[in-house]
Structure formats: structure tokens, C-alpha cells
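Interim report, section 4.2 (structural modelling).
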Amino acid sequence: MDKAVELNSVDTTYEGEKIPCLKGISLQIKKGEFIAVIGPNGAGKTTLLETINGLLESNKGEVKVLGKALRGDGNDIRKYVGYVPQDYSIDELTPFLVSDVVLMGRYGKIGLLKPITKKDREVAKNMMEYMGIDGISKRPIGKLSGGQAQKVMIARALAKEPEIILMDEPFSNLDFEARREVSDKLIHFHKNRGMTFVIVIHDIASIPKACNRVIVMDNGRIVADGNKEDILKPELLEMGYKGIVC
Amino acid sequence: MLEIFSTKIILFAIIGAILTGYTCSLMGTFVVRMNLSSLGFAMSHAAFAGAALGIFLRKDPLIFALLFSTFVSLALGPLADKAKLKTDVVIGVIFSLSMALGLLFLNLSPDTAMSSTALRILWGSVLGMTTADIIYLLIITVIAILFVIMFFKEINSILFDRKLARASGINDKPFYYLILFLTSLTVAFSLKLVGGLLVFALMINPTSSVYQFSYDMKKIILFSPIVGVISCLLGMLMSFSLDLPTGSSIAIVCSIIFGISVLISPKRRKG
Ligand SMILES: Nc1ncnc2c1ncn2[C@@H]1O[C@H](COP(=O)(O)OP(=O)(O)OP(=O)(O)O)[C@@H](O)[C@H]1O
Ligand SMILES: [Mg+2]
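Predicted structure of the assembly:
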């Protein structure tokens, strides 16, 4: 059995804070899983994603991604892990075009001193077409609507052709129609390329159909983890998962 | 007026202006985009203080300018990076300390004070560019250009957003420090031509002018140095023909270019 992500009793504490934000998280994610992470504001969802891709350094326990222990700055691992952050502050005057922002998603993977090839440009172009943003590819990134910008960030993460993709509320700015569309596209990637997905999502109704597992977080801990059908039972949701610890 | 200078001096002045304008404005594109303006400001004044110390000690001012500006970039870099401290305050302190020390050192060297050497590091001068100065400038220009070409992917990603660059697997820290380090070298090597007080204008104004016309970072990186070179050459011409300090002339020219750019900027026009 191939593991994509493995966390063993991991604590993550933000710099300057005394109390860890993630407390003793243990979690195993198999390759090819499609996981939704839910939970109230401040539960630690974003912190969990950034602990997995090494943007935040855990201070206890062990984080393994694609079989390798995350150590040091974790840049090597991030070449295989796509990330769509929850918030990215893009100023209106930011001097970058949409097509460049998407292509840049591949830069880390291409590697130091290696040239950008025709294939790199093609993949980026395909992703833009796929996400329906090819029409705005020469627009400045700061001049897009929230939803358009979100699609650009998703295209950027997909352009890397990662093995694992972490998305932090990728639908928050999309209308319902677009949510379904993008969601279908993600399912396509999951099915055809075997990408592993971890998606933080607030709107339970827009959890993609391909999702097989739901993790519920609260107060820095995982309070429930299981099949979508089991976890999303109305009575459990209503109780807010209080007191349930798996 | 021009006839009284030898061809060699004029030739060196022109080459010096081209190289200084190019490198300063190239590094300026990074400084502006990464919001490091106040850091660049502190660096240039530290370089001035260093050069003044060099004159006081009767040693090569360039070496001390280099030491001082590099020290500031390496000492303040981590602070600006982490934003743990209000960097504005620290930079304000460094800036006033540098100016105080610089003027003090100049004052303490009575026979050279307000002599041409001392004035030169304050205001810059097209005269007295030596072969060594030109070679140093050429080396730093080549290094800066190679740096941008070789690490274009990394630099471009970092200029867009450092956190997103890191998320895509780029090691941003070394590049951040390399940019700071190259900027401090550029500042120190430009001192002779533009002077410590105004080298900063040459970093900020040309790129800010080009910013008015483009949303494409690639073009900004390409054209800012060209505007820098034009500013330097025009400034030099003004300095030669009106007998004004070179640094002031260059700063005035690039401020005028910036002003015009803002006025005719398509970014500010409606429709
Ligand atoms: N940079 C930071 N420094 C200190 N504490 C932080 C920082 N970022 C987040 N926290 C704290 O960590 C906890 C978890 O934050 P996190 O962003 O992971 O929550 P979340 O589940 O993603 O919430 P949301 O649904 O609002 O996005 C919160 O209590 C928050 O206050
Ligand atoms: Mg969050």
C-alpha cells in the first residue's frame, strides 16, 4: 500500500505562540485518495495543509510525504505537491500576466538552471484552457474578479502536474455553476492521473462526488475521520462533532 | 566647455554612466517590487558613511563603502524579511546615523574636507572615473545580468509572491539575500558617479517610470535599465553643459522622466 502522506503525533506551533495549533495529529493518506477536510473557523485546517507541504515546520512528531520525511525547508517535496492557498493578496497593480502566473507553477519543478521548455508552456496553456481562463491569459493578474483569480490559482497548482494537491477552500469565490464545473474537472484529474486530493471546504454541498473520505477538525485536533457517508450524517453534523474523537 | 576635457575622460564618463544606469535600475526593479525601498535608502547612505570613513583614514573609499553597504544589507535583511520588528524605525536610525557619521568623518579630515574627493562621494562626479572604476562597474553589471538570466525562473517567482514561490518548490531565501547583496554592491560601485545621496533616485525612478506603462514584469525588467541608462546619459550631459553636480543632474532628469510617465500613464487614464 502506497502512502502519500503520513503524520505521526504531529504538533505545529506558530512562531511566537506558546500553545501548539495542531495537537498530536496522526493521519495517513493513501495515494489516490480524495479527502475533504471540514471544521469551524480556526480549527487548524490551513495549518494542517501547510504542515503537510512543509510551509510550516512541525515541532513534534514526524511528517512523511511520498515516503520521504519532511526535513529542512521541504522545497524538494513541494515540487510534487500542488497548493492552492486560502488567501493570496494580489495587489491591483501587480505586474504579472495570468499566463506567467500559471507557468510559474512549474518553475520549482523544472529546477535550478534548467530552461523552460516548449512542453512546460504547453502544459500551462492546456491548464488555462481546461480551467476556462485562456481568454484572460494576457490580463494582469491583479485585475481579475475573485472567482477568476481562484481559477488561475487552481490552474497554477495543476500546471505543476503534482502527485498530491492541497486546496484550501478553492471554491470560496466561485458561483454554484462554476463550483460544479471546477469540481468535475478535479474529479477528472483524480480519475485519470491518480492525483491525491486534500481539499478544505466549508460548503458541504459542494464536496466533489469523487471524495471518499472526510476529516473533521476542531481546535487543532482531528475529531472525526471516515467515509463520507458516515461522517456527513445530519445528526453528527448538527452536534458539531463535539466530544467525538476518533 | 566640452573641449577642456580629454577624450579619455569623456569616454570613461559615458561608459561609466551607461554601466551605472543599467545596473542601478536593474537592481531597482527588484528593490521596488519587493518593497525594499527603505532598505536601499539605508544602504546608499551607509555606503556614503563608509566612503567618508575611507577618506578620513586615507584609504580607498570604495572598500569602506562596500563594507558599510553590505553590512547594512546583511544586518537589516533578516529584519525586513521577517517583519518582526518595525523596520521603518530601524532603517530611520541607520539612515540618520550614517549621515551623521559620514558628515563627521568628512569634517574630521580637514585637508580633504569639501575637497573634490569628499564632494564627489556626496554628489557624484563624471570626472576622475579611473580604468579600475570602469572595470569594477563592468564586472558588477555582468554579474547582475547573468544573475537575472540564469535564475530568471526563481527571481520572477519570488517577485510575484514569495510564499507562492516557496509553495511551488523554490528556495526563496538565498535569492532574497543575493538580491540584497547585489544591490549593496551596486550602490557602493555607483557612488563615484552619482554620489551617496542620490544613487537611490537612480534605483527607484526609472523602474517606477516603466511601471506606469506595463503590467508585464518581463518587460519592466527589460526596459527599466534602458530608462536608467538614458537618465544617466542625459543627466551627464546636463552636468557637463551647465556645470552642475552629476548626481543632482541625474536625479533631476530621472525625476522629470518619472513625472512625465505618471502624467501620460495609461494606467491612470479611464477607458
Ligand atoms: N500566523 C499565525 N500566527 C499565530 N497563530 C495563528 C497564525 N495563523 C493561524 N493561527 C491560529 O491557528 C489556529 C488555526 O488556524 P487555521 O488558519 O489553521 O484555521 P482554519 O481551520 O484554516 O480556519 P478558517 O476556516 O478560518 O480558514 C487559529 O486559532 C489561529 O488563530
Ligand atoms: Mg483556513
